[in-house]
Amino acid sequence: RVRPLTCSEARRGDRQVVHSLGDGTVHVSAARHEATFGFSAVFDAGASQEAVFEGSGVRQLVELALDGFSCTVFAFGQTGSGKTYTLMGPLTQGEMQPVAPGLLGLMQRSFACLLEQSRSRGPALVLSASYLEIYNEQVRDLLSPGPPCALPLRWSKTQGFYVENQLCVDFESVEAITELLLRGSQRRRTSAHTLNRHSSRSHALLTIHTCSGAVSTHPAFGGRGAHPSKQGTLCFVDLAGSERVKETGSSGELCVEANNINRSLLALGHCISLLAKPRGKRTHIPYRDSKLTRLLARSLGGSGITLMVACISPSSRCLSETLSTLHYASRARRVTSRP
């Protein structure tokens, strides 16, 4: 998704170097740089939030999660490229007025789609949510009361990597899950720097757990369920943006945060590069290199179905980061999982 030039970029005289060619291709043209990239879909600056929801396949992921699959949507890109806006719409933290319906992000639209589908599937469907952030390589629960404390990350043969003692909250309406999203987002670490007034300083993972199919305890079935329950997940990952400390003017704590963010994104990129190789040529995939790659292990190379939304700026000043994001996304596109 290519965001529009910002007012400050236009005032500064930045040129637009990224153009959508239609047909899922995007062209980068600048001095000494001419490159074309192909993706499943490309959304230019004029695309509405609704168009991104309908054209990116998120609606299908909602249905697959209800059918018992493990689905993930993650937004990746430079700081200030529109990841949080794409997933959540404009940040209205501390403001009383609700977001205009047309500006709602992929998450709120998915919630509405999920509840709409759940009504047709009857009362046997149970929905719950958990919300975590990875801040400076610590996993913190955004929904539990009190100040966020670090939670341990464990491994089991059946679950893979999981977070111990995380809070999972049941919900039955769009209002309830939206309130959980807002409550958690307000506790998430953000800071202002020269490229972004609301820069996310952590990776955030909101996971919807779906459990459908009531278990029967009728004696005729020997006390066992006639229809085993189907358990699926729909996980939204808002990655903190990659950034160059020189350009953001970060120092002190902000600089430590930036280094941790970049290190975990590098680990993610390394895993994606190895997963993009043919199965026969793969070496060990180093998921244990960061908390982020551990939590995304199943989504990336395991049994999940994953959508990556690469967010980029069209500005000439962001050219190197934009090219980096496009190469990263091209590698991710070659990864195949076995749902």
Automatic annotation (TrEMBL):
Keyword line: ATP-binding, Cytoplasm, Cytoskeleton, Microtubule, Motor protein, Nucleotide-binding
Domain of life: Eukaryota
Entry GO terms, CC: microtubule; microtubule associated complex
Compartments in which it is found: Cytoplasm, Cytoskeleton
Positions annotated to bind ATP: 77-84
Boundaries of every Kinesin motor domain copy: 1-335
GO MF, one annotated term: microtubule binding
PROSITE patterns: KINESIN_MOTOR_1 (PS00411), KINESIN_MOTOR_2 (PS50067)
Biological process, per Gene Ontology: microtubule-based movement; mitotic spindle organization; spindle elongation
Pfam families registered for this protein in UniProt: Kinesin
Signal peptide: none
Family: Belongs to the TRAFAC class myosin-kinesin ATPase superfamily. Kinesin family.
Official protein name in the record: Kinesin-like protein
Organism lineage: Eukaryota, Metazoa, Chordata, Craniata, Vertebrata
Primary gene name: Kif12
